[in-house]
């Protein structure tokens, strides 16, 4: 069904399905293996110990790649639309792409460097991934409004902006409460010190992560009317 979508809509659709599966599969395996408590672990907690760590690392790296491809196509789409409408500066579109690719790099760092093995590098990667992601979807929401009504409906713009606002609001307590945690561990129980900080921060992390997924879901309709063509030219000497 995904491959039968018109244009290049299958790319954000695949990104949404793949990323959701990465989170859910890793969570289920980690809970069944007894590595984390079922009640709202950190996303990274569900991919720290084998066997889920290998699945998590592979799938999140693939998600980062798909996200990068989606962002680049989105950049090309806006550039193409901008040729006739001139609704946004090309530099702003490029800046948004660069911020988005930074977020993808952060995702790869999170997937590659495990939370308990190299916590400082892992935390930096997570901060870059979530911080850049929030900025990216906010910029894309603003660009969407500027492209109305020719290229987007106001209803879709409102949805994107709502997702961006919720993600921004959740991002702040996610960082604040995570910074209050005095230990690095994955098997939390309610009786432990700092559990409240962990719980609130984890809830916010899942909120931001699925905010990104739902935001990319809104790209599908835009991508349906856009196709990529590769042209080759042969020059004779």
From TrEMBL:
Keyword tags: Membrane, Transmembrane, Transmembrane helix
Organism: Galbula dea
GO cellular component terms attached to this protein's record: endomembrane system; lysosome
Domain of life: Eukaryota
Cited InterPro entries: CWH43_N (IPR019402), DRAM/TMEM150_Autophagy_Mod (IPR050911)
Matching Pfam families: Frag1
Protein name, UniProt field: DRAM1 protein
PANTHER family the record matches: DNA DAMAGE-REGULATED AUTOPHAGY MODULATOR PROTEIN 1, FASTING-INDUCIBLE INTEGRAL MEMBRANE PROTEIN TM6P1-RELATED
Residue ranges constituting the CWH43-like N-terminal domain according to the UniProt record: 9-225
Topology relative to the membrane: Multi-pass membrane protein
Keyword Transmembrane helix: yes
Localization of this protein: Endomembrane system
GO biological process: regulation of autophagy
Family recorded in the similarity comment: Belongs to the DRAM/TMEM150 family.
Transmembrane segments annotated in the record for this chain: 7-33, 53-73, 94-113, 125-145, 157-177, 197-220
